[in-house]
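2024-03-11 09:14:02 DEBUG pipeline.ingest accepted 1 chain
2024-03-11 09:14:02 DEBUG pipeline.ingest length=215
2024-03-11 09:14:03 DEBUG pipeline.predict start
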Amino acid sequence: MDVGLLGCCATAGGCAFAATYVATSSGSTARSRAQDVRDPLEGLMAAMRSFAPYRRMERHAAIVRGRSECLRQMPVMLDVVTLGLSAGLSFDSALELYCQRYDNSLSRSLGAAMMSWRLGTESRDEALEGMARRMGVSSLERFAGVVSQALAFGSPLAATLEQQAQAIREEQRAQMEEVIEQIPVKMLIPLGTLIVPAMLLAILGPLLGASLGVG
């Protein structure tokens, strides 16, 4: 009786071990096949990334994204600096307030420029103009010029920055209206190449079929 029980237990254990081995081996085989498929794709993507025109396209796309992001963030930055100046803060304190409250590419660039003129490696004018030139945003270059002139001649800066923020918002609104106006023109391409032929086929197909059948 005990021998039979031990035999059953051994048989069950052997079956469980075999099932586990088969499942593990099949799973490892599936993973190896997936890895075999993924490896050529990763190699192809790496080869494309190493291709010089592809790298240039990536850099150009990153620059365009950075400029558009900076242009979107500028009105908020100008509003914060204007509010800080109206509350009696200095320009550096108002700009630092924006850099502390917001975490984006513009705030990081302004923070780095502020650090450079506080450490004395560059003057405020040089740091702001250099940052604007590196980012390639015309509105930021105008901001640097306005700040330099206002601090040099003691002219009121808050009103000038408020006007600049309004001008940037109007420019963004004009660009958005231009994009919206171009949408119907762009819709003509899929409309003429896909939708109209499908509609003509759906309308004329039964008529042609009926005429051919009658004939």
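2024-03-11 09:14:41 DEBUG pipeline.report Residues 1-31 have pLDDT under 50 and may be disordered.
2024-03-11 09:14:41 DEBUG pipeline.predict end
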